[in-house]
Predict the 3D structure of the following.
Amino acid sequence: MGKTALIHPLIITNQFPPNFDGVGDYSYHLQSLLIREGVQVGVITSNNDSKTPLAANLFPIIHKWNFHGCMKLYKLVKQKNTNCLLIQYVPYAFNKSGFPLIFIFFIGLFRIQGVHIHTNFHEVSIRIKGESLISKIRAVLQRILAYLLCVFSDTIQTSNKYYASLLYPFKVAILPIPSNFEFVIPTPLSKLNESGNSLTISANANRCTPVLLNSIAILKQLVKHNIRLYIIGRAYPTDLVAINQLLSEYDLINETSFFVNDKAETIVQVLLESDIFIQLESVSPHGYGGVSSKSGTTAAAMHLGIPIISTCGDMTDQELFKQGENICLVPFNDPNIISEKIVELFKNKGYHTALSTNAKESYNSHFAWINTLNYHLNSVLKNNN
């Protein structure tokens, strides 16, 4: 790909590496790829601990996104003569109550002054239906602020159709979240666990629910193979205490290994040793939730060709997650069915191979970072010289 002209945009994100934050990781990789293409892009963040290789282009000037903090943002944008802001938006990231009114006011001010605004909605608002009156009011106010941000934005991006539907009638580009492990995956890719003597399952720490662990406890009674459970992702000490209590309750302590808050290379190796990746996203009785294209870990499993078991809800884009083709979808609250599907997937090698192959193809077609990079080069930054 040829080099593009120098543009000097600034990415605005609340968190940034080394803090554990998916949006921060996304921002880091986006900055890295744009710099590789000749775009001199900086990052404005509240993370004062970052020591990334791109620190020279990092401006951790914001303590809080209040009026004082946004004035610092305003002064830096003027000082750098920036003509484009790439906003990585999550309501609660820019205001702990979820109402970043001051922040959005300054974005409007930038727009009036001729700065181009691109907004990536990593989240839009909480739910309205089925919630308490206070939550309904909160959701309505968050959507009003999201609409204001859309009015100020030249281009709008999000990761799935559900979020896009909340921003209707604005034109929204839907780009699934890529895997943040894409750049540390070994080439050629080789599956590490091929002995057939054990069944290895990996799961995110923040999805280690009683339903998941009950499913694996039932699985122990259904197969003669050794069961191994790898817990990956990000977790606080309190999370680990709760998970260990559940593991003890379901007699899974000896089968479980933790790889939480670990480096990307380690997580990739853990996934490569896994026969199945399980991500049981919550699904409400109303059908709210399910696997979605905002999950970077699910994208990583797809990229590595690890067959995925997950759940289906209104956040599940059927074009991306196809039952029985590139993913196995199960009921959220039925551990017996979940354990039976694990056995089927493990024993049926043809099914296992098909899910693996199709998942990799789906990742390359829809999730890969090259899609996000091309969108920014050709749609977001093209006319901002």
Summary: Residues 237 and 243 are 10 Å apart (CA to CA). The longest strand covers residues 226-233. The radius of gyration is 22 Å. Confidence is low (pLDDT under 50) at residues 1-6.
